[in-house]
Amino acid sequence: MAIMVVGSVALDSVQTPHGSREASLGGACTYFATAASLFDRVRMVGVVGTDFPEQYLDLLRSRDIDLAGLQILPGETFSWSGRYGVDMGDVETLDTRLNLFSDFHPVVPESYRESPFLFLANIDPDLQLEVLSQVERPRLTALDSMDFWITGKRASLTRAMSLVDLVVLNETEVLMYSGRSRLIDGAEAILDLGPAALVIKRGSEGSMLVTRGGSIGERYFVTPAYLLPAVTDPTGAGDTFAGGMMGYLARTGDLSVSGMRRALVYGTIVASFTVQGFSVDALRNLTLDDIAARYRDYRCMTLYDPSPCPAGDWLERPLGRNTRAGTN
Amino acid sequence: MAIMVVGSVALDSVQTPHGSREASLGGACTYFATAASLFDRVRMVGVVGTDFPEQYLDLLRSRDIDLAGLQILPGETFSWSGRYGVDMGDVETLDTRLNLFSDFHPVVPESYRESPFLFLANIDPDLQLEVLSQVERPRLTALDSMDFWITGKRASLTRAMSLVDLVVLNETEVLMYSGRSRLIDGAEAILDLGPAALVIKRGSEGSMLVTRGGSIGERYFVTPAYLLPAVTDPTGAGDTFAGGMMGYLARTGDLSVSGMRRALVYGTIVASFTVQGFSVDALRNLTLDDIAARYRDYRCMTLYDPSPCPAGDWLERPLGRNTRAGTN
Lengths: 328, 328
Prior knowledge:
2 copies of one chain form a homodimer.
Chain A: E1 3-6, E2 10-16, E3 19-26, H1 28-36, E4 42-49, H2 54-62, E5 66-73, E6 79-84, E7 91-97, E8 117-120, H3 125-132, E9 140-144, H4 147-152, H5 154-163, E10 166-170, H6 171-178, H7 183-191, E11 197-201, E12 207-210, H8 216-219, E13 220-223, H9 237-252, H10 257-274, H11 281-284, H12 288-302, H13 313-316
Parallel strand pairs in A: 1-4, 1-8, 2-6, 4-5, 8-9, 9-10, 10-11
Antiparallel strand pairs in A: 2-3, 6-7, 11-12, 12-13
């Protein structure tokens, strides 16, 4: 089932301890669309300038991403540059130029209006509301946001969150919006606005799904990030997490809570590939087979009862009897 | 199978946002023993002064904990006092009085010498080595340590870690000992010393098991903490985590990797009860049935493929079709 995504398409300049890139393909909408297109058909709504490289458009088209809603206007594309420190934690923004994006108003093409899945990436919540008014009863609507709108457009964001089915925020944003110090309390405050579920992105700690009612274990699903030997560039991890998640939901059509939980895991897997390269590089040649293989390894990393790991010699080898212990 | 534990028995004075306690039963050995005794027989090795309340000894005896190795000497018991801030994160130590503990030398009673499970709680690594020289081929030996010994007695700690089967440290200690900035690298550096496995305690983030060889998912097991609406006092969480883990291993005798993974989860469950009360209060009347019930809920909180949660109305209720969305 087709997924429509609205958000920023950008040219990113990124520095990390592993290298740097100039004017590479970026933006929340781009990252989301590239990830979701691994699973299902994607329709983009956004804006770029005439400076936007044709090769980037070709890359998106090569993934069967529908660009009917991508406005190409005279002027310059939104650009962002940032630098990550050694621990790849908080990014330092060096420059943000909204350019054409500052006057952006999303226009949903007629051919998109009945998209069953809608993701409102991190943009001005007033624009998210504009999009919600242009669509016909999607099966699932979701939104992302950021600190800038939480402080600057709280009322609009609150209204947008109350209208969607699924809110996707990171841990800091949940605490900031709710004014609570415990994540669990912040999560409840957001669910109280009306959405059926909340997904909390927690970076290298993984993610959490919060649904309604039941015991702690029924209400909260907590799952770690896939462990990687090294991270090349964290940019786009959150957006490709959302893209993988929504892509899986659209592909399976499974909107049960257990389907949602697996969707978070697929998002986790896709994001783990994203951060292994700059821009969307690591997603370009990725296949569903690659994703399935890492999903199997992730199961092995997280499951315990029963353990899905193959019972091999090393796995069943007793841990004890270190022959050097008890050397009296 | 009996578990022998060596470590501190203390009188703790603790302040948290939820209240305070004076001279309550504390110490790593005590916490570990109380937790492990939920699963199997425990033998303590430690020292207290004649000021140590008889009621605390009675409490330990009431759990069938063998106190033959607990020296009761003229003088004062090790005492510690600390204060937790609002977020229950880093504790501020207000006072530490080693008292009799400063001259402590563990003596393993003859009746303990063939204990199949041995846990060396956080004490001077030279004392941990003394204990290792007094035991006869345990089936599993494990140790815990702390920053103080990592910086002050690095050579002895290194030797002790090379002699045990299982090292248990928290995340900060792994990074500090290894001098690495990524946990995964620090973990490998510790496994290179010789232990068959490393357990990394991560506080409210849960824990991780690192074993040898295989894929990422086979080598690393990552599991979150149980989510709690509120924490009363985090003191003893790490020691009761270790106690629950070792207790489960001793009770089942299952030293396969999958058995170890479940042991971490049982440690997680026991620790989650510990922090819901001061001292060992929350463990006093706890039963294996209580643990099993929370284990089931923890499975529900963490598992996804298949989900162990009962398929009820609310669980299978579609997330989508928020009737307020698409209200054009």
